[in-house]
Amino acid sequence: MNLLTGEYNNTIDEKGRVSFPVKLRTAINQNVVMVTKGLDRCLWLFTSDEWDNFQNKLMANASMMKTKSLNVVRHFIAPAQPVEFDKNGRLSIPQSLREYANLSKECTILGIAKYMELWDFNTYKEYLTSTEESFRDAAEEFNDISF
Prior knowledge:
Elements: E1 4-11, E2 17-19, H1 22-28, E3 32-37, E4 43-46, H2 48-60, H3 67-76, E5 81-84, E6 90-92, H4 95-100, E7 106-113, E8 115-120, H5 121-140
Antiparallel strand pairs: 1-7, 2-6, 3-4, 3-5, 4-8, 7-8
């Protein structure tokens, strides 16, 4: 799989289908992605290999006896669903996941190296605005990255 990168604005039709950019579909090189709840009211989309990697790491660090572990597992693993691209390159996002992410007509798709995020367009704009001030502080934590 190639790295997934780019920011794309698109629309979701009344049936919950969203067309995915050719660049991302080509990089995925699969007909099915796993879709689950992400953080900040977006959806995370993984190829099967990246999903297995994420799920295995999460489960290896979780305990069924710890409330915090159960909360995290229930948030990410339980709602995950495989979704297949149709012949027109669209994904039909399940209703429960659309509701979680407040997906309406306009959306934003982000390629983030090994996974993708699907946001409601307005929610993403609000997220960017609300995190602008803390971004520099967060970036400074990556102090070992140099050119």
